[in-house]
Design goal:
With 288 residues, this protein is α+β, with helices and mostly antiparallel strands. The protein has helices at 10-24, 47-53, 56-73, 119-129, 133-141, 148-167, 175-188, 196-202, 207-218, 222-240, 245-251, 257-268, 272-281, and strands at residues 6-8, 28-32, 38-39, 80-83, 89-97, 100-110, 171-173. The protein has two domains: 6-173; 175-281, Orthogonal Bundle (Arc Repressor Mutant, subunit A), CATH 1.10.10.60. The chain is 56% helix and 13% strand. A five-stranded antiparallel β-sheet has the order 3-2-6-5-4, with helices on both faces. A two-stranded antiparallel ribbon has the order 1-7. The longest helix has 20 residues, at 148-167.
Length: 288
């Protein structure tokens, strides 16, 4: 599947997130879906995390946590609390623009009273990173502690941040490019049955929004476009082959010959048999 590309004004986003970060006195970062990288400030936003990310082995653990958070974001549209591999809390907020997943905002890492560091795991991190265990623990303990109430407040704040980014036009979408991808997919798959859900999934859109977008840009109904393209393909087969009409219906993705004939007559004002007869006799045929 080829996702519709949402363009991100990284300069504007960085400027806005830096300003908002000052309000909570902690970095707000954006992780991009397509770029698979962080926007705003470096992800190395605490001495503890910086120490782990400098080592390739422990950095893989951090990256795996980031990727897992990213995967979770694609299954939820709501902010949520997420614990990384070191039991540090991050508050995550998925970012959708016109029903297209673009990435997520994150504020963290925080210590909580609910979860604390595991001495045995800290020893493993010490061995992997080459940093003394006592030093790692001290860096860990220097991280801020957050209450459950405060974490819930940050979730709300992140939701407002996403709204602000959208209102400031940080995200833009080339809608004509999206329409081109949709029509190209339909034409390539014209010989089989297609659903709105399938087509929408191809460009990572919600089916209802896909229909709305297509109608608003082209002025036409998407289902009507699909039928028109199928009938055009059927006309070509009728003119250039000796396939039966049942075979033509099958080749163009109609569920049965009777339904094909009904749609064909509605579009062409002729039955398939009349169309073939006129074509063979050389009579002019009015294309609808």
């Amino acid at each position: 599947m080829i996702p519709c590309k949402v363009n991100i004004d990284e300069v504007k986003m960085t400027e806005i997130l830096k300003s908002l970060s000052k309000a909570v006195r902690y970095p707000i970062l954006f992780y991009g879906f397509e770029s698979r990288r962080w926007i705003c400030t470096s992800k190395k936003n605490s001495p503890f995390c910086y120490a782990l990310e400098r080592n390739s082995t422990t950095n893989k653990l951090c990256c795996a946590s980031d990727d897992h958070a990213h995967d979770l974001c694609q299954t939820t549209r709501e902010p949520y609390l997420y614990y990384c591999h070191a039991n540090l809390l991050e508050i995550i907020c998925p970012v959708y623009f016109k029903d297209i997943y673009t990435g997520f905002l994150v504020i963290g890492q925080f210590r909580t009273r609910k979860k604390s560091f595991d001495p045995d795991y800290m020893q493993e991190l010490s061995v992997c990173s080459g940093i003394q265990k006592d030093i790692l623990i001290q860096k860990y303990k220097n991280l801020p502690v957050i209450s459950e109430e405060a974490a819930q407040g940050i979730k709300l704040f992140e939701t407002l941040c996403v709204q602000h980014l959208i209102e400031r036009n940080v995200f833009t979408l080339n809608e004509h490019e999206v329409i081109g991808k949709i029509e190209s997919y339909i034409q390539k798959n014209i010989r089989r049955s297609m659903t709105l859900k399938e087509i929408a999934g191809h460009v990572y859109l919600n089916p209802s929004y896909l229909s709305f977008l297509y109608k608003s840009v082209t002025g036409r109904n998407l289902i009507s476009y699909i039928q028109e393209q199928k009938i055009a393909a059927a006309c070509l087969l009728i003119r250039t082959t000796e396939l039966s009409f049942a075979e033509v219906a099958q080749e163009t993705g109609f569920r049965d010959a009777n339904y094909f004939t009904k749609v064909f007559k509605k579009e062409m004002l002729l039955t398939p048999s009349q169309y073939r007869g006129k074509w063979k006799s050389g009579e002019a045929i009015s294309e609808q």
